[in-house]
Design goal:
The protein contains 11 helices and 16 strands. It is α+β, with helices and mostly antiparallel strands and about 375 residues long. It has 2 domains: about 140 residues, Jelly Rolls (Sandwich); about 170 residues, Reverse transcriptase/Diguanylate cyclase domain (Alpha-Beta Plaits), CATH 3.30.70. The strands form 4 sheets. A 6-stranded mixed beta sheet has the order 10-11-9-14-15-16, with helices on both faces. Strands 1-8-3-6 form a 4-stranded antiparallel beta sheet. Strand 15 and strand 16 form a beta hairpin. Helix 4 crosses helix 5 and helix 7 packs across helix 8. The structure holds guanosine-5'-triphosphate (GTP). The site of guanosine-5'-triphosphate has 16 residues, from strand 9, helix 7 and helix 8.
Length: about 375
């Protein structure tokens, strides 16, 4: 047991300090003069060197401490900030209230310090002889604990809200990124995939697992489209491109890739059972586009297309079979267009049926 000693300073300075202390409101965990005297009367004093451990995190506690002089650092771990506490402050009190309580922090002397150690026997003495002081001390202590707990819950709630906001913004960024990615792969005029989208699809096809059906490629190019622009204007030209794109789309199944490569060039990558089915797709596109009608200065404008195609040898680089389909397209163009040529099929150059081929764009817009 001990009494709190006075610090070795002048009496005037002590008085001023005491007056200042008397005026300043107590911090929640500071003891009043009365409380200090009551606890000092039943406690033992312990001197600590810098770095000396008072107790360890997780250790079962037996005593509470009051700092007479110096500073103690409480280390809570788990990314929680340390706390530096000073003179008159009490800590480790839960062990007296609860008994066999595991310490929630490690307490270390941050400076040379002296503490009062209040053990269970001392606490029981106080219960008998100083119940009023003890009740007041406990009420204060509980209020502090409840407030800390509420603060902890509020912090947790705020952290959860922040986390939720971060997740939401991440989600938003992801959808924006996905939308941007879709946009850079989409042709503005027809809404079909553009050349960039086609290359991504080809890469996916070659790197992905093998499919049951075979892949065929059709390259579709409008005949003499430049003349449509020249004679009917760009607006009609755009209308023709949109309508032609729609017909390529109509010939595609959900797993196929219809796209506009640029200008008046379209492509269809399509899963088919065999080359005959690929040929049927080409015929469907050619006659559908041939059936389209547009207003023109002379009379109703008819258009035709040339289509080159072939089956895709997926064990070879895609550039190989792409250039073969392109060569077939060039071939049909060189023979006057308005038809399709599928490499490897029995038929050579095909043309739309006689009923469809009554007119072509060149004749329609000839002055
Ligand atoms: N209206 C319109 N025209 C376009 C667009 N993009 C490209 N063009 C035009 O399409 C025309 C394509 O001309 P060419 O490549 O010579 O093709 P073509 O006239 O069909 O000739 P062939 O293919 O040999 O039959 C060019 O005049 C381009 O200016 C577009 O988005 N809208």
């Amino acid at each position: 047991m001990s009494n709190l000693p006075t610090t070795p300073s002048s009496a005037a300075a002590d008085l001023a300090a005491n007056q200042a202390k008397a005026r300043a409101p107590l911090l929640p965990r500071e003891l009043s003069d009365d409380e200090l005297a009551v606890f000092a009367a039943v406690s033992t004093r312990r001197d600590l060197d810098v770095g000396e451990i008072v107790f360890q995190h997780g250790e079962v506690g037996r005593c509470m401490y009051i700092i007479e002089s110096g500073e103690i650092r409480l280390e809570f771990g788990d990314d929680l900030p340390d706390k530096l506490i000073g003179e008159r402050t009490f800590f480790g009190e839960l062990t007296l209230f609860i008994g066999n309580h595991a310490r929630g922090a490690t307490a270390i002397a941050a400076t040379p310090a002296t503490v009062h150690v209040v053990d269970h026997a001392a606490f029981e003495q106080l219960m008998l002889h100083e119940p009023r002081h003890l009740a007041h001390f406990m009420r204060r202590s509980f209020s502090y604990l409840v407030a800390s707990e509420q603060q902890l819950i509020a912090n947790q709630k705020r952290r959860n809200e922040d986390l939720l906001a971060t997740l939401n913004s991440l989600h938003l960024t992801q959808s924006e990124l996905a939308a941007t990615e879709r946009l850079v792969q989409t042709d503005e005029l027809t809404n079909l995939c553009n050349r960039r989208g086609l290359y991504r699809f080809l890469k996916r096809v070659q790197e992905g697992p093998a499919m049951d059906s075979a892949l065929g490629l059709l390259l579709v190019d409008l005949d003499q489209f430049k003349r449509i622009n020249d004679h009917c204007g760009h607006a009609i030209g755009d209308q023709v491109l949109r309508a032609a794109g729609q017909e390529v789309l109509s010939a595609a199944a959900a797993s196929d890739l219809p796209c506009r490569l640029g200008g008046d060039e379209f492509a269809l990558l399509t899963y088919v059972a065999n080359i005959e089915e690929l040929e049927m797709r080409a015929a469907q596109i050619a006659s559908a586009i041939r059936s389209l009608r547009f207003p023109s200065p002379n009379q109703h404008l008819r258009i035709s297309v040339s289509i080159g195609g072939g089956m895709c040898a997926l064990d070879q680089p895609w550039a190989n079979w792409y250039s073969e389909a392109d060569a077939a397209l060039y071939d049909i163009k060189a023979r006057g267009g308005d038809g399709w040529l599928i490499l490897g099929s029995n038929a050579s150059v095909n043309r739309p049926s006689a009923s469809d081929s009554a007119a072509c764009v060149a004749e329609q817009i000839r002055p």
